[in-house]
Amino acid sequence: MRRIIVLLSAILILGTMVGAAAAAPKPSQPIYMTTSGQGPDGMMLDILLNKAMGVPVKFDTVLKAENCADMKTLIFVVGYSGKGMTAASINDAAEEARVKALTSLAVKNDAYVIIVHMGGATRRGASSDKFTELAAVGAHMLVAIPDSNKDGYFDKMAQEKGAELVIVDIPDGGSIRTLVAQALKAVLAK
Questions:
Q1: How much is the pLDDT for 57?
Q2: Which of 130, 131, 149, 171 has the fewest CB atoms lying closer than 10 Å?
Q3: 3-state SS, residue 95
């Protein structure tokens, strides 16, 4: 009798896991993209995805939750920039509140959330990592370059979040932004 109960419990748990995996969102339109920490990489990624690759992404460095209520996919390009914060006329507290509101909306909408870090070691550190962690609430995919993950930061985050991790190889002389955009295009086209 005990074996039957253990077997039924295992089947129930497995069924729940399979059901949860089947219910996970997929990338779909509309796709919104913003920064978390006001680093500069989002603008270049917007140009590459929208103009060069024809992927319709709605980009705004200071995207607000009330302006994207129909969101199905949210891309955060993470990395802190003091100059970017000044240019956006936003302080750390306001940026933190904006990112939290967007992650809350993404969860509410069951939106697919992608975190992109392509700034390498120069866009890591306490400030950048804080905004990465804020954006990664509910993340389904993390996209990074090897230089961003030298310490295993994104490996650990992917494991903790149960998110897929994509490390984009950058051959010598390769364009980081173009290769990351190509990797994102492949994900968004699924």
A1: 95
A2: 171
A3: helix
Domain boundaries, the chain: 25-188
Instruction: Tell me the backbone φ, ψ of residue 65, rounded to 5 degrees.
Output: -55, -35
Neighbours of 129 (CB within 10 A): 18
The secondary element (H helix, E strand) that includes residue 157 is helix 153-161
Per-residue pLDDT at 19: 43
Q: Is the dihedral of CA 89, 92, 97, 101 positive or negative?
A: positive
* Residue 162: per-residue pLDDT: 95
Q: Report angle CA 136, 137, 143 to the nearest 5 degrees.
A: 25
Identify residue 127 by its one-letter amino acid code: S
Q: Which CATH number fits domain 25-188: 3.10.20, 1.10.10, 2.60.40, 3.40.50?
A: 3.40.50
Pairing of β 141-144 and β 164-167: parallel
pLDDT tier for residue 21 given thresholds of 50, 70 and 90: very low
Nearest to 124 by CA among 95, 105, 145, 98: 145
Residue 177 has pLDDT above 70, yes or no: yes
